[in-house]
Amino acid sequence: MAQHTLEVIVENSPGVLARVAGLFARRAYNIERLSVGPTSNPETSKMDIVVNLDGHALEQVIAQLDKLINVIAIKEILPDSPQPTIHDTQPDYQN
Amino acid sequence: MSGMSGASALVASLEAAGVDVMFGIPGGAILPAYDPIFSSSIRHILVRHEQGAGHAATGYAQVTGRVGVCIATSGPGATNLVTPLADAAMDSVPVVAITGQVPTAAIGTDAFQEADIRGITMPFAKHNYLVTDPDDIPRAIAEAFYIASTGRPGPVLVDIAKDALQKMTNFKYPTSVSLKGYQPKDLPDAQGVLDAADLIAHSHKPVFYVGGGVIKAEASRELLELAQLLGAPVVTTLMARGAFPDSHPLHFGMPGMHGTVAAVTALQKADLLITLGARFDDRVTGKLSTFAVNAKVIHADIDPAEIGKNRFADVAVLGDLKHTIAALIPALARALSKNRPDLTPWLQQMNALKASYPLGYDLPKDGALLPQYVIERLGKISGPQTIFAAGVGQHQMWASQFLSFEHPRTWLNSGGLGTMGYAVPAAMGAKVGAPDTTVWAIDGDGCFQMTNQELVTCALNNIPIKVAIINNDSLGMVRQWQTLFYEGRYSNTDLESKRVPNFPMLAEAMGCVGLSCDRPEDVDTTIEKAMSINNQPVVVDFRVHRDAMVWPMVAAGTSNDDIMIARETAPDWDSQEL
Ligand SMILES: Cc1ncc(C[n+]2csc(CCOP(=O)(O)OP(=O)(O)O)c2C)c(N)n1
Ligand SMILES: [Mg+2]
Asked: Looking at B179-293, which runs of residues are DSSP E strands?
């Protein structure tokens, strides 16, 4: 299974790391690596989350992450492409 | 306006959000808020347990479509709200919970009555807030109501530190809410609607698989029009009972573990599931890998994360179902004008199944009172406008099976979490939301003993609900599983509730009228007597046969193909052409 990196832009609010980590824990998704850092906008932070998931399971993780109110945008960096695929909020994955 | 306490700003915000009633109990941390509540136009109903406040808010929300509100103090007050908030999350009910928190400086010190309720509710609340600055209160409340009531509805908790309630602030309620990370999509994509219409117009065995989302979206009228346009079978899940009239010839009942043979088989044998606001719950699908194996799936929902969660969707339509179905009607009419498959053979098969395997029960020879009979008579005598709230267990399944639902928002139950104790407080909230409608709680003798204290609240606050206890002396649903899967070893399911408590006396002690009935010939007169009392809550102890079982049944983890209509009895598939 390929590793995927999700670049997640979140609101810089207390508890947001717990929300993201909790989501992975309760839906039984493994986090391979996680780092959190600032962005140029002081109101947001960026999380880089590396997961060992593919296809359907990856889509579910992204869809569930996107439901978190404090998650603003999710970019998926595909393993073999330098260009990130941008996932807007509330994307339409299946069509 | 300016210069008021955070507590006053909280109450002013709730008023600005349109709240007319809330359910709660005061305590230290939330106490500052109770002072302005005292003089507010909002009706505050003092419950006897915070769990009751939470389920009452849920019941209110489920009958009115508005946001239900509950309020509690920090620590144990807040943790008592956990079960009803988890319940509201599972059934997508818009609820806002306000909790007091210990003062900001004390947070994290294990202060008296400190509990991290934001952390506790994080896994299931749609969202939650911890407010420590009084200036943030109006925005948090406005956002909470917006988030709870839009998109896929759900519970939102606002935890407010006591000092934020006490400090002064300049009150200004936001005129609009915009959240970068939350933009629910109401309007469906045109292409998805066209693809769905096209798929429907090319299927020969389509079924409308209708979930609770249709009720939330107020889309029953649109559904009726769509179903009649296509003329295909409709099944309504436990959460969707009433979304489509039971009396309609296209309705084939409830699917799932205790669904009708026709509804379960319709899904199993379909070539297309037109899924509207349903979520392929395991209680509906049975063993997922054997569920509707030949069907393509159209999945229309407002929650993108439901698409493909349990079952792949060939066509997904994201949006508010009211808009989605309204758009689907003309699109389907156009598609059908080009290609109209003949659904007659499919409907004939389904009608044959419906005729061969109606829901029913055998009358006992010994004159014992049967639970199904009691529930059937309750439905017949009280009529289709009546609101019913059920507990969890056998009585819940019989209520869903043997009441006949004609209207949305007349059936309340805890579908997703299966919360015993839901019925009495939910009925209380429902009656507050619909004071001119008869509200019956159909409760188990086990469930009733979990939350009946709210009958005191009902008696004192002129909330005349009616409660039918289906007293089978036991935790009946668990006992049924012990009968079927544990060789009749009835470990800890005998409640002895025909001995203790004396339910009519308990009811009288709580300011209600208590009645009792144990003979079939007395059922009608007892129900009529209960119906005639409208100035007090009424509790009827229906003392029923303890061995009645819920059929049909698809055993947990097995395939819907293995549905049983009675113990060790499968439908006679050979005589059916499927
Ligand atoms: C809070 C809670 N505890 C335990 C259960 C497990 N459970 C499901 S049904 C049931 C029995 C309910 O008994 P009763 O209310 O008498 O209803 P009956 O099945 O007899 O109609 C139990 C214990 C549950 N659903 N909820
Ligand atoms: Mg019972």
From this structure: 206-210, 234-236, 272-276
Structure confidence by residue, pLDDT tens digits, B303-361: 999 999 999 999 999 999 999 999 999 999 999 999 999 999 999 999 999 999 999 99
Backbone angles phi, psi at B138, to 5 degrees: -60, -40
Considering the domain delimited by B2-171, tell me its CATH architecture: 3-Layer(aba) Sandwich (3.40)
Q: Whose CA is closest to B430, among B95, B150, B94, B68? A: B68
B101's CB contacts (< 8 A; 6+ apart) are B29, B74, B78, B107, B114, B117, B130, B159, B160, B161, B162
ipTM exceeding cut-off 0.85 for this assembly: yes
B385 flagged as catalytic? no
Topology of domain B371-543 in CATH is: Rossmann fold (3.40.50)
Q: Environment class of residue B279 by beta-carbon count within 10 Å: exposed (0-12), middle (13-18) or buried (19+)?
A: buried
pTM, rounded to two decimals? 0.96
Q: What is the Cα–Cα distance from B517 to B523, expressed in whole angstroms? A: 7
The CATH class that applies to domain B190-356 reads alpha beta
pLDDT of residue A80: 60
Distances (CA, A) of B127 to B96, B147, B148, B558: 10, 8, 8, 35
Q: Which of residues 63-82 of A touch B (CB under 8 A)?
A: 63-64, 66-72
* Structural tokens at position B403: 């009441």
Tell whether ligand 1 has an atom less than 6 A from the beta carbon of residue B445: yes
| Ligand 1 centroid, distance to B560 Cα (angstroms) | 24
Instruction: Say what the pLDDT of residue B367 is.
Output: 87
**Beta strand residue intervals within B231-369, DSSP E:** 234-236, 272-276, 296-301, 315-318
Structural domains of chain A, count? 1
Q: How many residues make up chain B in this entry?
A: 578
Asked if the model's pLDDT at residue B386 lies above 60, the reply is: yes
Give the span between the Cα atoms of B126 and B91, in whole angstroms.
Answer: 12
| Other CB atoms within 10 A of residue B227 CB | 21
